[in-house]
């Protein structure tokens, strides 16, 4: 049996985005969060087949468009990547919206604004389009907040660390320069890939974050190594680890949101200030705190993140059950 997926491939700030424009399964659920659970239960082979080798690679991520469930939303988005289906993905949204507009999968709104329903909630998107090309997308993201502070861990290879956990659509362990971590220039990519899962496991042993309003959003998934910027005009730099072997090539939209919540909590970033976040490869997102809010009784921010995506081609991908690697593999 051969399944065919029509994909629009590209990247946002260097990180891959595969928009699956044809071949999406019909999902059950009254919102994108329930559809995410249904996809994971019944169709996870599509994610692993499209994201893992030999059709994908360690950084592969993307998503599907669905009709929205919620009144007032224009489109629903389901994200896929190597580690699962994220509740929210910033670079993914920027890419998906860019490619969907450029290929006519969604019609440009006269207002230049789109409201999208994602598993983590609803987000507002504004964009600039010139001659059929989307030149920038800004996401006003879900409410972001600091979930835990000062978790003490001791990790082989880097020693004692104090970690804060913040949410920006996914939960991030934030590693600020301290002790033997003096900055990203002192770590090789291979050291980041070795140390990050150890840090994530050590934090997981002590703390399981659960979203205060949506218990289906739970668990620490990412590690954000924070540092001072390298390039002129940037506010900060990061290396974001996700899945089992990925360093985000983009500055990470949900990571940037989590980091802005973290800095706001420390009194180091104010509403309206621009936060230019540089990635591991020095690509950039421009973040901003739009407003302060509350998540239940927890202080939170509404962050926005702006970036640009580029379409690299169209890709018809087959997943054929006679292929021994139809579900993909990871080494
Ligand atoms: O941009 O939010 C993001 C993201 C999550 C994982 C990789 N990128």
From TrEMBL:
Please tell me whether the keyword Transferase is annotated for this protein. Answer: no
Q: Which domain of life is it from?
A: Bacteria
InterPro entries tied to this protein: Pro_racemase_fam (IPR008794)
* Uppermost EC category: isomerase
**Is Membrane included in the keywords of this UniProt record?**
no
Q: Which SUPFAM superfamilies match?
A: Diaminopimelate epimerase-like
Enzyme Commission number(s): 5.1.1.8
GO terms (molecular function) for this protein are: 4-hydroxyproline epimerase activity
Pfam families with a match to the protein in the record:
Pro_racemase
- For this UniProt record, give its keywords in alphabetical order, as a comma-separated list: Isomerase
- Entry's PANTHER family? TRANS-3-HYDROXY-L-PROLINE DEHYDRATASE
Entry's family note = Belongs to the proline racemase family.
This protein is called 4-hydroxyproline epimerase
* Source organism per UniProt: Altericroceibacterium indicum
């Amino acid at each position: 049996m051969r399944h065919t997926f029509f994909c629009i491939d590209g990247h946002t700030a260097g990180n891959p985005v595969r928009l699956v424009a044809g071949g999406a399964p019909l999902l059950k659920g009254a919102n994108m969060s329930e559809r995410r659970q249904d996809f994971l239960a019944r169709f996870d082979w599509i994610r692993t087949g499209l994201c893992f080798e030999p059709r994908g690679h360690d950084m592969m991520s993307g998503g599907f468009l669905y009709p929205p469930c919620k009144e007032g939303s224009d489109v629903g988005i389901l994200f896929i990547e190597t580690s699962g289906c994220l509740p929210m993905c910033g670079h993914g949204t920027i890419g998906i919206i860019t490619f969907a507009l450029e290929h006519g999968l969604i019609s440009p709104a006269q207002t230049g604004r789109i409201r999208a329903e994602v598993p983590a909630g609803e987000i507002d998107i504004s964009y600039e389009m010139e001659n059929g090309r989307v030149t920038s997308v800004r996401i006003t993201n879900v409410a972001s907040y600091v979930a835990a502070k000062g978790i003490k861990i001791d990790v082989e290879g880097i020693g004692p660390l104090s970690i804060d956990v913040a949410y920006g659509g996914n939960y991030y362990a934030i590693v600020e320069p301290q002790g033997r971590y003096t900055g990203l220039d002192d770590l090789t990519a291979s050291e980041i890939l070795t140390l990050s899962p150890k840090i994530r496991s050590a934090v997981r042993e002590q703390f399981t974050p659960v979203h205060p309003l949506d218990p289906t959003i739970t668990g620490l998934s990412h590690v954000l190594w924070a540092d001072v910027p390298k390039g002129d005009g940037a506010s900060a730099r990061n290396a974001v680890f996700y899945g089992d072997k990925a360093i985000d090539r983009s500055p990470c939209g949900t990571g940037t949101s989590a980091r802005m919540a973290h800095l706001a909590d420390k009194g180091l970033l104010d509403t309206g200030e621009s936060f230019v976040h540089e990635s591991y490869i020095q690509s950039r997102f421009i973040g901003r705190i739009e407003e302060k809010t509350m998540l239940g009784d927890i202080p939170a921010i509404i962050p926005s993140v702006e970036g640009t995506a580029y379409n690299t081609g169209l890709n018809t991908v087959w997943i054929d059950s006679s292929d021994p690697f139809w579900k993909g593999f990871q080494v």
